[in-house]
Specification:
By secondary structure, the chain is of the alpha/beta class. The chain has a single domain, classed as Metallo-beta-lactamase, Chain A, CATH 3.60.15. The chain starts with a strand and ends with a strand.
Length: 283
């Protein structure tokens, strides 16, 4: 699998849109890998995870054909992961010569409800009809072309909401745990991890939420680097990861204190890679 990290920031971006803190000023000064847009990841050019308001910028920055995307997987309805207004201009006279006219969207019911409430009175019928919705349920595996995807409950929002993290497996057996926007996982999720090991062994890659990084927050909605280390230890103890698993840190908050090189220096001690906008990896 080819994994491209299009955006690697939390909700406000980095530098944050309305912030002049030291971390934001320093990122602006240094540029490069310190400039982070809202989180989004593209697998094999066809499976897109989340649709933030920076998606159009990602198209421009990386020369993407967004109509080549066949499957869109949404983690949850927060603005930095799902910006539904953009779909009101996908189709009709707004969009010509699309590679794929139809787009399959996979999400929780509340994400679809949010889409209808925000865009329902604006989107043209011919645009809406190009979207095929697939409503996901926790632990129920679905087939998306060459991929088997299992949504797992994230520890992120209120209990009545359904934020998901994902286990993604391609037809060759390469597997990714995509764990953004979650604090420490519920025991039922750990039971699933154990079952994965029993059936298919360690995963190929884990993408860890590292929003708070150097903060000692432990607020259960995101993770710090110390929490990632705790999760990695438990994963290693039950065989979910091994020395060949690629471990990636992603989704960074400007209040997390560390800039890219500082995070990288700490991450190396745990054999982790700090994601940056535009980074590509293959597993």
């Amino acid at each position: 699998m080819n994994i491209r990290f299009l955006g690697t920031a939390a909700a406000e971006g980095w530098p944050a849109a309305f912030c002049n803190c030291q971390a934001c000023r320093k990122a602006m000064q240094l540029g490069g890998k310190n400039i982070r847009t809202r989180s989004q990841t593209l697998i094999n050019g066809e499976l897109l995870i989340d649709f933030p308001p920076d998606t159009y910028m990602h198209k421009l920055s990386y020369g993407l054909d967004l109509t080549a995307v066949k499957h869109l997987l949404i983690t949850h309805k927060h603005m930095d992961h799902f910006f539904p207004q953009e779909f009101s201009i996908r189709g009709a006279y707004f969009s010509h010569d699309m590679t794929n006219e139809r787009l399959d969207i996979y999400c929780a019911q509340e994400v679809k409800d949010h889409f209808d409430s925000v865009v329902g009175g604006e989107i043209k019928e011919e645009c809406y009809d190009l979207l095929t919705w697939h409503i996901l349920s926790p632990f129920s595996t679905v087939t998306m072309g060459r991929y088997q995807v299992t949504p797992l409950p994230a520890s992120h929002m209120n209990e009545e909401n359904e934020p998901f993290v994902y286990h993604i497996v391609d037809k060759e057996g390469t597997s990714i745990l995509y764990l953004l926007d979650s604090g420490y996982y519920k025991e039922e999720v750990w039971d699933y991890f154990k079952a994965v090991v029993t059936t298919s062994g360690p995963v190929s890659m884990v993408v860890y939420d590292s929003t708070d990084f150097a903060l000692d927050s432990n607020h259960s909605k995101h993770m710090s680097f110390s929490e990632v280390k705790r999760v990695k230890e438990r994963m290693a103890s039950i065989g979910v990861i091994n020395e060949e698993t690629v471990c990636v840190l992603d989704h960074f908050f400007h209040n997390g204190k560390c800039l890219h090189d500082e995070m990288t220096a700490l991450a190396e001690s745990e054999n982790c890679i700090v994601a940056y906008d535009g980074m590509e990896l293959s597993v």
